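Re: the request from the purification team.
They wanted to know what the chain is likely to look like in 3D before they choose a buffer screen. I agreed to run a prediction and write the result into the notebook, where they can find it.
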Amino acid sequence: MELANTKLILVEGLPGSGKSTTAQLTNDILSEMNINTQLFLEGNKDHPADYDAISYFTKEEFNHILDQFNDFKELLIKHTEEQANGYFLSSYRIRKGLGDLLLPEPLEKKLWDKDVYELPLDKHIELITEKWKSFCEKAVNSEDTYIFECCFIQNPVTIGMVKYGASDEIVMSFVNRLASIIEPLNPILIYVEQKDIQKSFKKAIQERSKEWFTSFLDYYNNQVYGKFHGVNGLEGTLTVLESRRQLESKIFDIIKMKKFKVDNSEFDFDSHKKNILHKLKL
C-alpha cells in the first residue's frame, strides 16, 4: 500500500474548519489499516517539528538569566535544552515545576519576550526551519507515520502575514522551504475547506471558551496586519481570515507534494471520514 510509504500527513485549514477532527479521523483511518501513527494536534508541548511555549536565548542571554534569577537556576536548567547555538527553555514546564507558586513577573516577561513565536521573523524562520530538519532526519527512518495539525501552513501564515504583515512571497517561500525539507517523508497535505468561513468560525465561537474568542480577536485585530488594515471586532477578524484563506489557497496550489482538499461544511462525522478515506486511497 502506497500509504505505508508516507511518513507524514499534514492537516491544514482555517480556525473552525474541523482540522482537529480531520487529523483524528485520519489517525483512526491509518490505525484501521494497521499503520503505526503518531498524532500531534495543535498546542502539543512535545511537538517534534514545532515550538509551543518555548523560549530561545543565546548563551550570553541564558547566562544572564541564570545570574539574575539565581533562586530559580536549578529549575531553569532542568527545563532547558541546548541546541542551534542557543538555549531553548520550556516556559510551560518551568511553570508546571513550580506547582502553585508563581514566577517573578520580570522572569515571566523575559520568557514571553523570547518565545519562539515572538522573535523577529527572520530568527523565527531560522529556528523553525532547523526544527523541521531535525524532525525529518529522525522520521525518515521511523516505522511510524506522523500526523500534524496546522503547523505547516497555519503557523507560517499566522506569524508571517498576521503578526508581521510580511508579503505573500516571504510567507510562501517559508512554507516552500519546509516542503523541500520534508520531501523524503513522502508527505500528504490535507486541506479542510468550508463553504462559508463566517458560519464555521461563528460555530467555533459557540463551542469554545470566551477566553479563546477574546484572545483570538485581540491577536487578529492588533498585530501588524490588522492594525495596517484598520480592522476591529469580529467583522475585522473575519476580514483577516478571508485574506488568510486566499493566501493559504495560493500556498496549496504551489506546494509540490501529494495533496487534496476535503469539504467539511456539513460537519457530518461519518461522511467526512468516508470522504477522507476515499481521497487517501486515491
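For the purification team: The mean pLDDT is 96.
Please add any questions underneath this entry.
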